[in-house]
Design brief:
Blueprint (H helix, E strand, L loop, with lengths): L15 H5 L5 E3 L1 H7 L2 E6 L9 H14 L8 E5 L3 H13 L2 E7 L4 H9 L3 E5 L10 H12 L2 E2 L7 H8 L1 H8 L6 E5 L4 H13 L4 E7 L4 H7 L29 E5 L1 H15 L5 H17 L4 E6 L13 H5 L11
Parallel strand pairs: 2-10, 3-4, 3-6, 4-5, 7-8, 7-10, 8-9
Antiparallel strand pairs: 1-2
């Protein structure tokens, strides 16, 4: 068959980058499942073109801006990000004829900084500041968008993010499990994934339990449990945890929350890599640790789904750097000790 007769409508042919975002498989996590007697499934979001779940948010936000007449060919979109959303925004912008300006705290991993520059983002690094500080990367990005007369992506409060996950991620999970899902858990940065998936699953079955996984140093666990956003401690994980409730997370249908330490997350990151061949980042480690704990709470024979947000290569200089880990009182993986 001549390749010039194939079109993106043919089976298994994606229509460019945009057509390749989403549709990721669920992977049965063998050791987590065996440890709990449950079926624990990880949605392989590291298989998106930009390497993370944030490709979905980036696409939803840009499509929404186009539909609203805010973005036209040659236009500019600005975003404040811990890295992955910036990567997704830049790649989708490249594919659709836009420029991207990405504002990111300078404390993020060198791998993400290098990758953003490699793919052509106009990257602006700023000192890490709390959200209440006007120098926080989110506020800097908002002001920069105004100065440039550009579109501000606003991943935290732009509800296109949440709707995108409700229309894709949540629908895919329901279909892939044939509706046999008992619980869903994941950590929150913007809240778009948890809230959107919750919207989709709760619409189909109110019995599905939605559980927020939260790292140390974030206030969202306390917000769910007692409406208290107080923050204690810190975490080496990037892009998740909040000291405020983003717009995407407000009114989300959440049944419970679990606190996960860095030690618990790293145990899962290293276990998944060494025993199952899955290379994931710290947020995925938090998600899998939460899924295991949730499985033990619920008891055997339940189906629990979580998100494998991105790959471990994006954190080589941190999660797989013995000096970095020891400097924070954490244990390097056994094969690097």
């Amino acid at each position: 068959m001549s390749t010039d007769r194939l079109t993106p409508s043919d089976a298994a042919i994606a229509d460019g980058l945009v057509g390749a975002i989403g549709g990721t498989p669920l992977i049965r996590l063998r050791r987590a499942s065996e440890a709990t007697g449950c079926t624990i499934l990880g949605k392989a979001e590291f298989m998106n073109p930009g390497g993370s779940v944030k490709d979905r948010a980036a696409l939803a936000i840009i499509l929404n801006a186009e539909q609203r007449g805010q973005l036209r060919t040659g236009g500019t979109i600005v975003e404040g990000t811990a890295g992955n959303t910036g990567i997704g925004i830049t790649l989708v912008a490249n594919a659709r004829g836009y420029k991207s300006v990405i504002v990111m705290p300078e404390t993020q991993s060198q791998e993400k900084i290098d990758f953003l520059r490699m793919i052509g983002a106009d990257l602006r690094l700023v000192p890490a500041k709390p959200f209440k500080d006007p120098g926080n990367y989110v506020h800097v990005a908002r002001r920069l968008a105004d100065e440039l007369d550009a579109v501000y992506a606003d991943q935290f409060d732009n509800l296109a993010n949440r709707r995108g996950h409700a229309m894709t991620t949540g629908v895919e999970i329901w279909a892939q499990t044939n509706g046999r899902i008992d619980a869903f858990t994941c950590a929150c940065g913007t809240g778009g994934t948890l809230a959107g998936v919750s919207d989709a699953l709760k619409l189909r079955s109110s019995r599905v339990k939605i559980v927020l996984a939260d790292p140390t140093g974030s206030g969202l666990y306390g917000w769910v449990k007692s409406n208290d956003l107080s923050v204690e401690g810190s975490s080496i994980t990037e892009g998740i945890g909040q000291s405020r409730v983003p717009g995407n997370l407000r009114d989300a249908q959440i049944d419970d929350a679990l606190r996960v330490t860095d030690e618990e997350a790293l145990e899962q990151v290293y276990d998944l890599l060494q025993c199952e061949g899955l290379s994931v980042g710290g947020s995925a480690g938090i998600n899998v640790a939460a899924a295991i704990r949730l499985g033990r709470q619920m008891g055997p024979d339940h189906v629990i789904v979580t998100i494998l947000c991105d790959g471990g290569a994006r954190y080589q200089s941190r999660l797989f750097n013995p000096d970095f880990l020891r400097g924070r009182g954490l244990t390097p993986p056994s094969w690097m000790s």
